[in-house]
Design a protein that fits this description.
The protein is mainly beta and 152 residues long. It contains no helices and ten strands. The protein has a six-stranded antiparallel β-barrel with strand order 1-2-4-9-8-5. About 9% of the residues have low confidence.
Amino acid sequence: MDTLLLEGSEVRAMRWEARDVPGGSTVCVEFAAACVRRDPVDAPGGASVRRDSVWGNVTALTLRLSGVMSAPDVGASEFSLDGTLGEAIGTLSGGEVRQAAQMWRALPLPCHVSGPVTLSLRFRAGQEWVWQGHELTVQAEAGSRFFESYAC
């Protein structure tokens, strides 16, 4: 099983996809190098293919938060409905996904969370972006690859 760790992941781009329907906008976070832990996998017959977890980067991974509105977080950066999110790129110093009383700093791949959900991303450059939405998905894009790396 693969697990995305928000801290240490490199964001290539963030896009705001505004919709005409209230509450129907989407924030897309595109990772250039998502920090991923790949856990041991059992082969048929119960033998383990790997004994230890492997750390690395996954290229071409996208996180989508649908049904977005700005979260009421005082420390968060503001964003414009008609502006770009161009300053929201670089390495994440942290981040979390919250749903009700649950909080995750790592997400299984692929991932789908329904219901009210809050996404918070903190960049090493100092920006913090916080959104609330109705549905979060994380999945690899076509052509995505895993590269072992000790940098994660």
